[in-house]
Amino acid sequence: MADGPLIVQSDRTVLLEVAHPDAESARHELAIFAELERAPEHIHTYRITRLGLWNARAAGHDAADMLATLERWSRFPVPPSVSIDIAETVGRYGRLVIERAPVAEDGSGGELILRSTDAAVLTEVSKNKRIQPLLIGRPSPDSFVIDAWARGHIKQELLKIGWPAEDLAGYTPGTPHPIDLAEDGWNLRPYQRQAVDIFTDGGSGVVVLPCGAGKTLVGAGAMAATKTTTLILVTNTVSARQWRDELLKRTSLTPEEIGEYSGQSKEIKPVTIATYQILTAKRKGQYAHLALLDALDWGLIVYDEVHLLPAPVFKLTADLQARRRLGLTATLVREDGREGDVFSLIGPKRFDAPWKEIEAQGFISPAVCYEVRVDLPAGDRLEYAAAADDERYRLAATAPAKIGVVRRLVDRHAGERILVIGQYLDQIDLLAESLGAPKITGATPVDEREQLYQAFRVGEISLLVVSKVANFSIDLPEASVAIQVSGSFGSRQEEAQRLGRLLRPKESGNTASFYTLIARDTVDQDFAQNRQRFLAEQGYAYTILDADGIAA
What class of enzyme is it (predicted)? Predict the structure, then answer.
């Protein structure tokens, strides 16, 4: 047995020795089907989960591929129980298939069919008390008719009991609309083209790419491939306008063909860009804008930053299963644990490219990450110790001692474009005043935000203090330094998004620097360890610095 970097254990955990010369190669292959759980300095712990295996299977990796990865890099023999478990779990995907019955000349037929060649599996699921009401007929021993409205719901329920169905029932073509890529002096990158092709073949699913790797162009490529009316759902109005600008630049679409449906505008065009917020807005207890989902015969629905999909949109998406759905994200991590709903209702992971792999190809900027540990003065430390549990994180995250460290880091990177990122508005106000820098929060009008972002892009301003509104879908390619002063507790997705602000390729070619400021020996430090897990999985290591050692 080779002296590999992995140790595979019978409880489905896999240990990775970080210092091993083959660690990075093993990590990239392992991350296809296993999730990082813990990432201290020397040994990282991954866990092989059912959903991870099924996502890998849907992306084209079979059990033999996954076992070969473990056997190739494992220091000791892979436990037989793990080998058997992986083969059997992966084998569950696709044993149940959802199809559409042929339509006869008289217009009859076209029902949704749940089919399996495994009679025992079909019997088992048909007897489940949550699935049984969704089945309304049995045309043959190997099939059931699914109630027309229940295509999404039955996929959710089947996943919960461990029998994920492969959905081959097809999609409505929608209203045809001519869309072409305007590849004038540019082309889709190879991985973008591959993502578009795999999605088009699969019909629905999620494409996972790093921030800055051009997910919007994958969306545009999918639109050009399907040539149909398209509804694009995004996180906020600024993101909607960036999508609009990119589509006008990169495709044959004209301004008259693209509509914005947000709090400020209610346009419905062949390509309509709407915000999650407007879709989930309620009036008198009812969703006020549900009509948007049927305003046109959409042939494609694009979910930008699908890991942020609000819970109510899952329920709405369950009714959209006949339409092609493309999810775009940098991470499938959801802090609410609803990754299974993304799998069932948007679709499985169709394409995933490791961050470091795309960095090595020169398509995103290299980045180094630092955790700066800040000592609290005696008075602040005593106040923290005496505080209630629910107050301690805020006290640690907003410690005034961080302000001076931020100033020294800003001086250290003079001449670069710097984002200072915080969670708490009073802290953001203090930072902006202390640094003499403009700020952007949720209260900043959209037009003012766009003006400040544009001034930052062109270099009129080089320092910007921002709240979490800048976490998502904001294109600031020349930002090369981010200083995270506080965040949303232990959110892995937020850490990934904030580093992502720096990964867009830069004309300067500079390596990006990502600093996260942590109050030493507090819950701030505990939450930081969880926040860093996803980036550790992607191959980013944090160098720990002492704040007292940072000179301007």
Answer: isomerase
